[in-house]
Design a protein that fits this description.
The protein contains 3 helices and 7 strands, in the order βααββββββα. By secondary structure, it is an alpha+beta fold. The protein has a single domain, classed as START domain (Alpha-D-Glucose-1,6-Bisphosphate, Chain A, domain 4), CATH 3.30.530. Strand 3 (46-54) and strand 4 form a beta hairpin. The chain is globular and about 40 Å long.
Length: 143
């Protein structure tokens, strides 16, 4: 599996960042790689979410995402789709009037991708994703 952890700082309160990250159906608006996102079901504090994205190849997969609103964390597990597996989550902690955002992902695609290419995709896409997230948080702050 290609696993990694990365942090960033967002100039907004943790709840504001949480609200953007857990607004799954809006992902295609600010994460352009996601072409479609649908909440299939809700089970207690979990949402079952189907994602369709295009990273040069169209991939559809479903995750069960547990939400801990008290601690502002999410954790997901793979349900099915074009991947072999995916686990990860988000953490949002107040730090000096801003939010320290932690992102963990451990994924295995369901088709052959050389390790060098999958590592490069993760290394390039996560910082880009953080910038897109920051942009959406700032946009919502101004609204």
């Amino acid at each position: 599996m290609a696993g990694m952890h990365q942090d960033t700082i967002v100039d907004a309160p943790p709840r504001a960042v949480w609200d953007v990250v857990t607004d799954y159906e809006s992902y295609p608006r600010f994460f352009p790689e996601f072409t479609e996102v649908s909440i299939i079901d809700t089970d207690g504090t979990a949402k079952i979410v189907e994602f369709t994205c295009d990273f040069g190849k169209k991939v559809t997969y479903t995750l069960r995402i547990e939400h801990d609103e008290k601690n502002l964390t999410t954790r997901w597990t793979y349900v099915g789709g074009d991947l072999k597996d995916s686990q990860g989550g988000w953490q949002f902690k107040e730090e000096g009037g801003k939010t320290k955002v932690g992102y963990d992902v451990d994924a295995k695609v369901g088709f052959f991708v050389p390790k060098m290419i999958s590592d490069r995709l993760v290394a390039n896409n996560v910082p880009k994703m953080f910038e897109q997230l920051k942009g959406e948080v700032q946009k919502r702050k101004k609204a």
